[in-house]
Backbone:
């Protein structure tokens, strides 16, 4: 029994302070972020149209090949099949170039919003260190957080620190 009491007392001695932020709310209050998102949406739509047009070309080539297949020699079939495969690879390469993990959209997003995210991180870090928070949780992305008291929401303080 005394062992259990000692464990409970030692746990309370190491009590940790937590806070949370609502990143979606913070970002929605930053005009540069909204403008960057609009710009990214426009770029993404333009690039998606390019990819879809190229994919439509590949699809058209395939349908034409199917229609003409009975009239083609073995060499002609091979040549058409190779052209279709090359076009499909071109579609995949373009999709990867624009939307891949290190693609142009990722790089553009970093250039447009990376500094905003860094500023938010630095503000959160400064507030957390000043108030001795052991952890700051993003409520908007933490699906397992069922309830968090508004008393520990430091979103307003972060926005204030950022000048918004």
Residues:
């Amino acid at each position: 029994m005394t062992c259990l009491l000692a464990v409970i007392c030692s746990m309370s001695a190491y009590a940790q302070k937590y806070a949370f932020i609502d990143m979606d709310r913070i970002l929605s209050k930053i005009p540069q972020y909204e403008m960057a998102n609009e710009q990214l949406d426009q770029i993404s739509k333009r690039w998606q149209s390019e990819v879809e047009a190229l994919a439509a070309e590949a699809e058209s080539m395939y349908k034409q090949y199917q229609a003409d297949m009975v009239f083609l020699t073995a060499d002609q079939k091979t040549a058409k099949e190779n052209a279709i495969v090359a076009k499909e690879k071109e579609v995949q390469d373009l999709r990867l170039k624009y939307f891949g993990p290190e693609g142009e959209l990722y790089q553009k997003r970093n250039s447009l919003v990376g500094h905003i995210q860094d500023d938010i991180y630095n503000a959160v870090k400064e507030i957390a260190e000043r108030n001795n928070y052991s952890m700051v949780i993003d409520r908007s992305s933490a699906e397992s957080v069922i309830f968090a008291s508004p008393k520990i929401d430091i979103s307003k303080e972060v926005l204030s620190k950022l000048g918004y």
User: Anything to note?
Assistant: Helices lie at 2-13, 23-28, 31-68, 74-99, 104-130, 155-162. Strands lie at 17-21, 133-138. The longest strand covers residues 133-138.
